[in-house]
Design goal:
The structure is a single chain. This protein is α/β, with parallel strands linked by helices. It folds into 2 domains: 3-77 and 131-178 and 259-356 and 582-636, FAD/NAD(P)-binding domain (3-Layer(bba) Sandwich), CATH 3.50.50.60; 97-113 and 218-250 and 359-573, Glucose Oxidase, domain 3. It has 17 helices and 23 strands. It has helices at 3-19, 48-60, 137-147, 163-172, 181-187, 215-223, 257-263, 321-331, 337-342, 386-396, 418-421, 426-437, 454-472, 523-537, 543-547, 563-573, 625-636; strands at residues 28-29, 38-44, 66-69, 97-101, 114-118, 175-176, 203-204, 239-242, 272-275, 278-284, 296-301, 308-318, 334-335, 349-350, 365-370, 412-417, 477-483, 488-490, 492-493, 501-503, 514-516, 550-554, 608-610. The strands form 7 sheets. Strands 1, 2, 3, 9, 10, 11, 12 and 23 form an 8-stranded mixed beta sheet that branches. A 4-stranded antiparallel beta sheet has the order 8-16-17-19. Strands 18-15-22 form a 3-stranded antiparallel beta sheet. Strand 13, helix 9 (337-342) and strand 14 (349-350) form a beta-alpha-beta unit. The chain starts with a helix and ends in a 5-residue tail after the last helix.
């Protein structure tokens, strides 16, 4: 595509989505009376994957009608650091996201996880931290290994989800625009041009601004022996990476699915309808039709109580997200039979994996102090200066935006394999493999809500074996840590072993479900947290940090004196969710607790598919939006869609 396309169409698209201009008014629907009598496809959820599928379907099949139903509305997607903030405020969630809390996690002193889920056209891509990375090849090869656990004699129809099979869709799903050459020279950005096809209006790039101290950990990490990774987007994600931001090339603001897969494409597609401010409550199968399908979709207005149904000719696609997709299934009588009986919901299809396998990236944080003045600028405290703050706001309003407000969390990120973190990693692997091979179900540390289901237990054992092999590999990352500025770093555990659940809230079944994270319930997770945090603390002993007089703040020297004391610190302070929940409708064989097959069709049901991060069987070593886009692209190319 030519740059003129970006400068005109991209800018107009942002204006359309911000102002709800007439170009899309005929596509947006707000009440049942505006809908067709039936649709070929109905997609529940206008999120990252859902809008990708809707775009590709309406483009490929102009004679097929598609209805997307979204709980939220269409509008401007704020960044994580938009004016008038003077510090990073987290995801921009006002009116665009659910701010959710889990039940207490006993292994972490009954602290709760806080997680934000998208509630807008664009889903979580409209509110996330805008880090746009891909997982390691070992992550997706692990997905493929789990599919091979099927005992079915005929696996000819199995679709490959390995790295090699998914990589073309990673490339297809994003357009990368290099920053200006002067910025490249100043900040030493590098990237892989051949890792992007540059044919889609989902964009990524690097900001033109970095704080003056952004290079300090980069130097220290090199002093620690961390390699420069130059294939971070090509599956070889071991080392120090420059990671791009979800940045539009015209505005230098957020690029997300509500813009790239909706506002940029809908104007000339009469077969595409978007119903906003409505909730899919259930899918309903006519008597005797559950295996053939498709189901009817039951819908209600968010601000009302009267429900109506939408007839579907071909297929229903659930893309309501990691929490709301299993909630829709459970309300529909599709899920664990014992739970549905407790909920007094008539059983349609016993599927124990629905709402199981919940996990997320988690980990402790470290902070430090400098005892010497910092010899560089600008720094975040300059935002407290009225003149600098006024310049920063004015720069953000330029086209393209400039200055500190264009930063979206971090671009410098390390991904470190466990064998490079500690020489004493074998005991952790031995613990995981002992669990995987144990005949004692209690050794698995699984939720009571699994109800001793043998398929779920078998699936978890299969995951443990895959994860142990990944953690043992010297090129498969176990730890992530990202830096932009300041005196704080997080130690993200990329492959957690603990598993939680998502269950319908029986007292308010149309509200977000109950999240039981059960963080650190598997003792292997705490062992990983300890070695990850000790590894990061070594950074303060590098020549670069010593020259600046850096000293540890938290954990203090006393708190890190022994592993037991460090465990106490982690129990009190660990972040249980870095906003990367996944895996609650896992793509695995039915006999090991899977919910969908490799075609993402729900096991045992006709005309029903799931396409969002809930189908990931194991969380990848990455922030999730890029993978969610790639999954949407891959499933859109299946011949049976």
């Amino acid at each position: 595509m030519k740059s003129s396309y970006y400068s005109l169409a991209g800018l107009f698209a942002i204006l359309r989505i911000a102002n709800a201009a007439p170009q899309t008014a005929g596509v947006i629907k707000r009440q049942a009376s505006q809908l067709l009598s039936s649709y070929d496809f109905v997609i529940a959820g206008a999120g990252t994957s859902g809008l990708t599928v809707a775009d590709r379907l309406t483009e490929a099949f102009p004679n097929k009608t598609v209805l997307v139903i979204e709980y939220g509305d269409i509008g401007y997607a704020p960044g994580v650091f938009d004016p008038p903030q003077i510090i990073w405020g987290g995801p921009g969630t006002t009116g665009t996201g659910w701010n959710l809390f889990s039940t207490p996690s006993p292994a972490l002193n009954n602290n709760t996880a806080q997680v934000v889920a998208g509630r807008a056209v664009g889903g979580s891509s409209a509110i996330n931290g805008m880090v746009f990375d891909r997982g390691s090849r070992f992550d997706y090869d692990g997905w493929a290994q789990l599919q091979a656990k099927s005992s079915s004699a005929d696996r000819k129809g199995t679709i490959d989800w390995s790295w090699d099979a998914l990589y073309p869709f990673f490339k297809k799903s994003v357009t990368f625009t290099p920053p200006p050459e002067a910025v490249v020279q100043e900040l030493n950005y590098t990237w892989e041009a051949d890792a992007f096809d540059n044919t889609t209006p989902i964009h990524a790039s690097f900001p033109e601004f970095q704080w003056g101290d952004h290079f300090v950990p980069r130097k220290a990490w090199r002093e620690m022996g961390i390699r420069i990774a130059d294939k971070c987007y090509s599956g070889d994600k071991d080392g120090l990476c420059w990671i791009a931001t979800s940045e539009h090339p015209v505005t230098a603001r957020r690029s997300y699915s509500g813009l790239g897969h909706y506002a940029d494409v809908v104007a000339n597609r009469p077969n595409y309808h978007l119903l906003v401010k409505h909730q899919v409550t259930r899918v309903l199968y006519p008597s005797g039709k559950s295996k053939s399908g498709p189901p009817v979709v039951e819908v209600r207005p968010v601000n009302g109580t009267d429900v109506f149904t939408v007839k579907v000719n071909n297929e229903v696609v659930l893309s309501a997200g990691v929490f709301n997709t299993p909630a829709i299934l459970q309300r529909s009588g599709i899920g664990p039979a014992h739970f549905l009986k407790e909920a007094n919901i008539p059983l349609v299809h016993d599927l124990p994996g629905v709402g199981s396998n919940l996990h997320d990236h988690s980990g402790p944080r470290m902070t430090w102090k400098y005892t010497k003045p910092l010899p560089f600028s600008p720094l975040p405290e300059d935002m407290l200066n009225a003149t600098f703050a006024a310049w920063a706001t004015a720069a953000f309003d330029e086209i393209p935006a400039k200055g500190p407000y264009t930063l979206a969390m971090s671009n410098s990120i390390i991904y470190v394999p466990l064998p490079n973190i500690t020489a004493n990693y074998s005991p952790i692997l031995d613990l995981i493999r002992e669990q995987a091979n144990s005949t004692d179900a209690s050794a698995l540390h699984l939720p009571a809500a699994y109800n001793g289901d043998p398929a779920l237990e078998a699936g978890y054992r299969a995951q443990l074996r895959v994860l142990a092999d990944m953690l043992a590999h010297p090129r498969s990352p176990s730890l992530e840590s990202a830096y932009s500025t300041g005196t704080r770093l997080s130690a993200l555990m990329l492959h957690p072993l603990s598993r939680g659940t998502v269950r319908l809230n029986l007292s308010a079944p149309l509200e977000p479900p109950i999240l039981d994270y059960r963080s650190a319930s598997n003792p292997a997770d705490m062992a990983l947290h300890v070695v990850h945090l000790r590894y990061l603390l070594r950074m303060l002993q590098t020549p670069t940090f010593q020259e600046l007089g850096a000293v540890a703040d938290t954990p203090s020297e006393e708190q890190a004196e022994t592993d037991d004391k460090l465990v106490d610190f982690i129990k009190n302070t660990a972040v249980q969710s870095f906003m990367h929940p996944c895996c609650t409708a896992a793509m695995m064989p039915l006999e090991i607790g899977g919910v969908v097959g490799t075609d993402l069709k729900v096991h045992g049901l006709g005309g029903l598919r799931v396409v969002d991060a809930s189908v990931f069987p194991i969380v990848p070593a990455a922030h999730l939006s890029a993978t969610a886009y790639a999954v949407g692209e891959k499933v859109s190319c299946l011949s049976n869609l």
